[in-house]
Request: fold
Amino acid sequence: MSFRHRHSLIAFEYNISRFKKNVNIFAYFFMKNYENLARFCYSCSDFTDYVKFYDIVQYITKPAPQRWSVGAPLFFAVVVCAILWAMIYWNADLAAKIACTRQEMETLPPYIDHLLEVSRSLGQTGIHPTAHQFDSEKDAFLRYGLLLVSEGLAGEILEEILSVLLYVSDLKGIDFLRQCVAAEAILSIANGEDEDTMLRKLLPYCGIDRALAVMSKRKSDHAD
Amino acid sequence: MLIERLAQMYVHWGSPAQTGELGRRKKDQAVSAVHQFLDVIESTAEDRKTLFTQSQQSRRKATKLAYLLLASETEPEAIHDAFLRSGLLSTGQRSNKPEVLLWLAGTEAIARGIHPYIAFLIMSSYFGLETAEEELRWLQERARASSSTLEEYIVPGDLTDSIEEALKEPARLQRTIRIAGMPLSASAFAGCSVYYIEKILTLVGPIGALILTQMILSARKRLVSDEISTAQQAFVDLFTQEETEPTAQEEEAGVGEEAFEEPNLPDPELMHTTTNIVMEAEAKILKSTLSSMSDGEIASLLRCLEAIAHERLLNLISQGRQKRVLAVIQKTENVTSGQMLRDAQLFAQKLLAAYAPKNLRPGTTLSIPEKLRGLISYLLSRE
Reply:
C-alpha cells in the first residue's frame, strides 16, 4: 500500500465531523481552487493533520447536501484516494524532506511576515537593480530569488529555476520548508500578486490550524 | 505550481544526489563546461550545424548528446526522449544525475528558443544555491561588459504616446515587463525612441537589459510596424489592467460597503456643469489634460458627462485608448454620486493645471475664459 493510501485510510477511521466548523471556514479561505491542496498535503506533520486534510478533501469533492455524511464509506474512500492521486503528485521522499515538528513550524509565521514586508516594500519602492538592494538580505535563497526577479524573470522560467534549486537543495526539515515558502513568495512578488493572494499561498505551509487562525484573525481585523 | 512541479521532479527523477557529494574539482569542470556551452551557443546562433564539430570534441556523454541534438535541430519534445533512451538517466548513473539533468534542461531550453543567458541560469541552478549565485554574478559582469547599440527607430503607437507617463511609475512598469515577458516587452519597446529605451533598461539588471536589447534588435529586424503597434497595444493593455483591476481584498470590502453607499443616481446638475466645462475648454488644453489622465480616470469622467460631450472627449484620444477606456467602463459598475463628484473635481483640477503655464509666478491670473472659470469654481466648491 502506498504512503498516500495508507494515510488516507487511517484518516478515514477517525470521526470526520469533529472539525466540521473549522473546515467550513478554512475551505472558504483557501479552497477557491485546488492549488492549495498540495501545499496543505505536504505540510501535514502528524496523524491529526491528516484527519483534517481528509476533511478538506471531503469538503471540496462532495456536493453540498452530502457533505459531512459518513454514509457509503467505501465509495467515499475510493473517491478521495482517486482525487488525491489525480490532483497531487505525492512523493514520500519529498514529504520526508519537508517533514518537521510542530515546534519548528511555529517559526514559520514570523518568516512569512518578513516575506510580506519585503513584498510590500518592493511594491512601493520598486527594485533598484544597480543599487545592491538585496546585499543586506541574510537569507541566501530569498536574496538569489530577488536577484533573478530584478533581472526581469517571472512566471514559468523563474518557477523552473526555483524548483531546480529546491530539488538539489541539501537542506531538510524546517530549513527546507522555509526555502519552499521563500520560493513561493519570490514567485508571487515577480508575478505582481497582491498581499492577500500571497498569504493564501504561503500560509498552507504552516499547517491547517495556523493557516486558519491567521486568516480568521485577518478577516476579523478587516471587518473591524 | 511550485510544489507540484517539485513533486513531479521527484516522481520522474527520484531523489537527487547531494550537491555536496560532487567534488570541488569535478564541479569546477562541470561549471566550465557550462560556460563553454554558453560561448558556443552564442557563437553558433546563426548556424547550429557547426555544433556537430563541438559534439565530436566533447568527452562527456551528456555534453556530446546535448550538442548533437542541437546541431540536428531536434524538436524540444524529442530531446527528453533522447536523453531517456541514451541510458544516462538510468538508476545506475545516480551520482551523475544532476549533471545529466542540467544538460537535458539546457538543451531543451535552447531548443525552445529561450535566450542562452536564461538557459545558463537554469543550468547553473543544478549546482546548488551557492554556485548558482556565484554564476549569476559572473553572468552579470559578462552582460555589463558586452555592448549592443540601438539606433533610432520610432513606430507611432499606444506605447510611444504614453511611455513618458509610464516611466513615472517605475515599480509598476517593472511588474508589467515581468508579467508581459521579455519577448512581448521587447517587441513593444522596439518602436520607442532610444532615449526612452535607455531609461527602461535601467529598470532591470544587466542580464535582463542585455536580453531586452538583443530582443529589441531582433524584433526590429523581424516585425513590421503594424506588428510592433499591436505589441505596444498589448503591453499598454497590461500596464493599464494592473491599475484598473481591483484586488480580491478590495472586491471583498466592496461587497460589505455596498449596503452603506448612497443610491446610484446621477446628479443632473453635476452632469450639466461638467458637460459645459468640456464643451467650453480649448481643444488643445483638453487634449493635454486627457493625456495626463489614466484610462480609469477618463472612464470615470465620461460617466459624469452628457452624451454631447462624449464625442468631443473621445475624438481627442487615440483609437486604441478609446477601446481601453470603453473596456474600463464595461468592467466597472455602481458608481455613487459622491464618487462622480470627486471624479469631476479631479478632472477640473487637472484642467486648471493644464491652463497654468510652467513658469507661472505667484499672483498671476490664469488666462481662462470667464464662463469656464465660473463653471470650474462652481464645480470645485461643491461638496
Summary: Chain A has two domains: 3-98, 102-223. Residues 3-98 of chain A form one domain. The CA atoms of residues 72 and 78 of chain A lie 10 Å apart. The radius of gyration of chain A is 19 Å.
